[in-house]
Amino acid sequence: MPSPFVTRLASFQHEERLAVEDDARSRTFAELWDRAQRVRLALTEGAPSLEGRAVAILVSPGALWLEAFFGTILAGGVALPLSPLYPPAELAWFGEDARAAAVIVSEDQHERGALLCEGRRVLFAETLADGPRPEGDAAPLEPDDVALLLYTSGTTGKPKGAMITHANVDVQAAILREAWAFGEGDRLLHALPLHHLHGLGISLLTTLLAGAAARLLPRFEARRVWETFCRPNPPTVWMAVPTMYQKLFEAFDAADEPTRARWASGARGLRLATSGSAALPVTLAERWRAVTGTIPLERFGMTEIGVGATNTLDPSGRRSGSVGLPPRSVEARIVDEAGNDLERGPGELWIRGPSVFKGYLGREQATQDAFAEGRWFRTGDVAERAEDGYLRLLGRTSVDILKSGGYKLSALEIEEALRENAAVAEVAVVGLPDEAWGERVVAVVVAAPGRAAECAPEVLRGWAKERMALYKVPREVIVVMSLPRNALGKVVKPELVKAIVRGTVANMSRTES
Ligand code: MLC
Ligand code: AMP
């Protein structure tokens, strides 16, 4: 059976409708298909297929990004989208872990990607589609072939590459197209990063595989988003993480009255505004209602499972503080620690369905551990179910998984990186509740003898910025004499969080960024 993802994309290949536009370029579906075919030839150099080899994509968001992405897919490659927010060494690590055979890079990212590019074929996004068009339509592909690799942080060490298949991509788009009534007339305003499922699968591919158009902004900027709501031919759909709503309201509050009235009127033109990746505070939902008349549609998802629950498209069925019901063909269970079903919970949420991923690349044990019998995926989220089935998320089973601005972060991964600094004798990374970011990453550090100066917040943050994605860098560093540990020597993180909130962490010097 051919790839349903490619078949769906191919069905739009003669459409002269707009598919994507950015600040510099626009492409119809026909142009996008034609250029992706040329990228395919550039990548395969005439071979029938890349045979599942990974292609790293380090390209700024826009039409060129999509050409590189679809070209990789049509070539039978596995797309590995990478973020320009990563420092060079981490980019290189992803390339190695995924065994990327080639890198597609945009000129503005070339310097950052130099280490990643070393020893690999390098193709420039700007000229990649300039060559001839190949014979035939695509490499031979099966539904179960891997289409993309999305790296996600877990409770152990380094991030893991989640393998998402052609069938996963296609069915996820179909489920959301149906649940959210996407049609060819829709126009998505897009400002999410493209190396995660929210920005790539849930918003961009759902839109394009519905035959609808996307406008990609180079980055999220609150004023720009409001203004884009108001332009001629305005967007019909907006998808965001809660922190974006927070930042939209900060800009709104800072604007003068006529501007606010104009922005509000633009936002009321959207037929759908969604929120996901982290809990949407009720206060933000209510502010959006005050401006537009409805609360955003909140839904729950995860890299490994796609969308696991969604509120209704009909605003009257939406419930603030709840993530709604599993969409068509997705099943949810709430279980206790022994894996027994609980009617209402709270307990761990398990998900099963056709959008659930294939496994973690090269990590068989982690893949096995992630699933319970019957291919139920253990989300690690704690949920409870209302009488009518609506799900509410209460937190995570692990204190070491944090969510900041919608990014999932591993406290252990950040600790490991900080421990490489010889001035850091001990470190515990925790998430503190934060109105704007959901959780704020805080590193509590014991300095090595005589090296406290190197652990001063701005010094340590500066050091960390060279080594981890900017959004992983602790926003706050607290230097203490010792960390609270239990009898087994394990840091008691809940105690630590409470002590920080109360301001009673012993002997500390504390500075915020
Ligand atoms: C930026 N910074 C962050 C951060 N984003 N720090 C912590 N957490 C974050 N999420 C840092 C910057 O590096 C900078 O550091 C400082 O904060 C100020 O940056 P900013 O300009 O105010 O932030 P901005 O660039 O506007 O970014 C905010 C944001 C971004 C909300 C737009 O975080 C974002 O795009 N989040 C989306 C994450 C996402 O897509 N998650 C989906 C995962 S998939 P300094 O030191 O320079 O001051 C998933 C499945 C599902 O979860 O269901 O959706
Ligand atoms: P990621 O691994 O980056 O895909 O993040 C997935 C995690 O984001 C989930 O396991 C949840 O913890 C969290 N998440 C996603 N959507 C929501 C939501 N609407 N409310 C609360 N948490 C969410």
UniProtKB/TrEMBL annotation:
Residue ranges occupied by any AMP-binding enzyme C-terminal domain in the UniProt entry: 413-490
Annotated ranges, domain AMP-dependent synthetase/ligase: 13-361
InterPro entries attached to this UniProt entry: AMP-bd_C, AMP-bd_C_sf, AMP-binding, AMP-binding_CS, AMP-dep_synth/lig_dom, ANL_N_sf
Pfam family, one: AMP-binding_C
Family matches, as PROSITE patterns: AMP_BINDING
Keyword field contains Ligase: yes
Single Gene Ontology BP annotation: fatty acid metabolic process
GO molecular function: medium-chain fatty acid-CoA ligase activity
Coiled-coil stretches noted in the UniProt entry, renumbered to this chain: none
Family of this protein: Belongs to the ATP-dependent AMP-binding enzyme family.
Protein name per its UniProtKB record: Long-chain fatty acid--CoA ligase
Organism: Polyangium fumosum
Organism classification: Bacteria, Pseudomonadati, Myxococcota, Polyangia, Polyangiales
